[in-house]
Amino acid sequence: MRARRLVAVASVAVGLVALSGCRAEPGIAAYIGDHRITDDRVAAVLKDLRDKNPKPTPSATPSSTVSGQPAPPEPQLPGAVQVASVLVLSEVCEQISEEKNYQPRGQVAPEQVAEVLMLAPGTGYVRQVAELYTCLSGVPSEPVAPTEQEMAALIGVGREAGLIPATTTDEDAARQLDGEQLRGALATRRSLVEAAEGYDVTVSPRYRPLEFPVLSFPGDVPAVSVPLGELGSDAVTDISTPEPVRSTATPETEGTAS
């Protein structure tokens, strides 16, 4: 059965931060204020993912089921960039929530995340993602209308991914895309960027550019993303890119499972 996507039940978001200064130390993946996330911690999460989600043997992965239907796709393990983005954003959310006394408005169970990501529920990464979405559910935001530039960028992403047909005008696409989910995602991104400006978040060039999607089109094509740390070209390249869905659709907010 095809896994369901993560969809927000409240104004869930992500955020982050602009950064000042340049901090670099061997073995450090990222800094959030005085807190450090080490390369060893990222590596430990990746090892746990591999150990608890081994690749099926060829005999266990037939090209089709007994009924003749295609077998479900194999899950793709998150890479170092995805792991680092979850660890960084989790720390940012925890600090903001403690400072502002934000309380979660929804609980996300590891089993929900495991179903969506097609990973073992006992995986540490799965638990971390569940805790992150629970934390983000408590970050308040008031929906705001997208600017012309934001809408143009969103339409551009949709067209490049083959999700908005060439026969659909920009005006029609904007009317279809503009809604509660988009406005909530933009508001959450803006509110967290503003709230986290005081944190000196710095990311190692090995993980840049580091982003976390607030809103995605079907097929996990990022629609609205929040940059985590400095921009840079020396990025880790083992993150997998999902195949785009060749159909028109409204993007979905990342958050709790429905």
UniProtKB/TrEMBL annotation:
Keywords noted in UniProt: Signal
Listed Polar residues bias regions: 247-258
Chain intervals for the UniProt region annotation (Disordered): 49-77, 233-258
Keyword 4Fe-4S in record: no
Signal peptide boundaries: 1-24
Protein name: Lipoprotein
Originating species: Micromonospora cremea
Organism phylogeny: Bacteria, Bacillati, Actinomycetota, Actinomycetes, Micromonosporales
